[in-house]
Amino acid sequence: MSFAAHLINGISLGSVYALIALGYTMVYGIAKMLNFAHGDVIMVGGYAVFVGVSSLGMNPLAAIVVSMAVCTVLGVTIERVAYRPLRGASPLAVLITAIGVSYLLQNIALLVFGSDTKAFTNVVTLPNLELFDGQLVIKSVTIVTVIVSIIIMVGLTLFVKKTKIGRAMTAVSEDKGAAQLMGINVNGTIAVTFAIGSALAAVAGVLLCSAYPSLTPYTGSMPGIKAFVAAVFGGIGSIPGAFIGGILLGVIENLSKAYISSQLSDAIVFSILIIVLLVKPTGLLGRQIQEKV
Amino acid sequence: MALLETKNLGISFGGLRAVNAFDISVEKGQLYGLIGPNGAGKTTIFNLLTGVYRPDEGAILLDGVNLTGKKTIEICRAGIARTFQNIRLFGDLPVLDNVKAGLHNHYPYSTFEGIFRLPRYFKTERAMNERAMELLQVFGLEEYAGYKAKNLPYGQQRKLEIARAMATAPKLLLLDEPAAGMNPNETKELMDTIRFVRDHFDMTILLIEHDMKLVSGICEKLTVLNFGEVLAQGDTQEVLNNPEVITAYLGE
């Protein structure tokens, strides 16, 4: 029974990683850059809900919508101010800028909210699910997390495959120049990608803080990095890859916490990154890089 | 009035004068060829016309509208579409979606409507599908609609590029070496396609080509470029018999 519980918790944690990894993978796919500030957008999303619910007494659902809006604006602003001027610059310059933005967000949060841990109120107020006469208790937030993630995942896939903005995204990710010559607004499309990725980060932030109810300015950084590992694991640039990578990573982390060592669990997670990069550099579902001979 | 007119167009890359004092005047409905040895600046001219490069001097007029210094997407909206020397399709998108990408600007609905699938999303997407299928049928590609573009045979990829360019509803179509890498049979089919596009869509076409059979077969007028400058200009046969042109191609 406890194995099932660990597994389910792992899937739930993995769903959060998956949501964050979607942001990484979409931005990488289209702008060919790693947005290391993405994890900190989650933290901002968490604080937005915290302020909304605890200080302003908002309805949790309304607070989530506000938080999504805040993160969307934040994501688009970051792209506009920090990344767009570097379009065409060397990838290293963009990477360092992203790390800079990440520290900037953390320190602004430190300045505004202080370093003390805020107790996050769980926004999921449904009863827990008890199975097998109470031998297996699944927290409602766990179930909600998994369901929300699946809905978002399916919705996003449909959006990318079936709408013209999604089509424009794929076109831009394959060939910016050709897309532009077909009349697609490349900057606009990249901005939309950041907007969607950041809105998902807000959702991830709320779910993460509901499951692990403590909020500090550094809340986003570790999940952010693990989600990046998940995105690489699944094949960066691939949406289903991010989902599978996220879930697998969450499950592996939780099971190794339970059965191997809670201190070593992070080491195991990052070892996976190294092994994946050695064995299959493109990740599980990554696109094969073909060499012409 | 000419559909496309350039006046004294020029651009330098560092110390290299890639294009100098380039004048061209393409009439509506014309099939116009731009030829010249490798490195003469032909593709550079296409990149100037589509706003990929900004000219250092000179002017580009399409239907009397000045397009000089405009952005690529503005020029696309103004009505210039192109294909590429090396095929640049969206390889992982289905054939149909490649054409729909070309329709992008003509069928508006917002991202919001797309995410929440409001009625206008369905209506617009349906209209886009119909229009894209029509175009595929015109080019005989309808049976491939669901294939990934990269899995098409080479000749069909070339056709799809033309179909995608036509989806942007251009006034002027630029073809950059459409026959590159084709065998004689494919080239013959391509000539028919180009003629067909001109007649069926009443299109004006400016093309770069090395294949002299294609050039002399379908182009009505030619401009020969050498070292970034116009060497000769006029009716196809006249130009091809010009001794200077023959020297530039074959040497002394």
Residue share in β-strands of chain A: under 5%
- Main sheet specs of chain A: 2 strands, antiparallel
Quickly count the helices of chain A: 11
Q: Spans of chain A of 5+ residues with little confidence (pLDDT < 50)?
A: none
Mean pLDDT of chain A: 88
Strand content of chain B: 15-25%
Enumerate the strands of the largest sheet of chain A in spatial order, edge to edge or round the barrel.
1-4
CATH topology of the largest domain in chain B: Rossmann fold
Tell me what the CATH architecture of the largest domain in chain B is.
3-Layer(aba) Sandwich
Low-confidence stretches of chain B: none
The largest sheet of chain B is: 6 strands, mixed
Estimated helix fraction of chain A: over 70%
| Average pLDDT score of chain B | 90
CATH class assignment of the largest domain in chain B? Alpha Beta
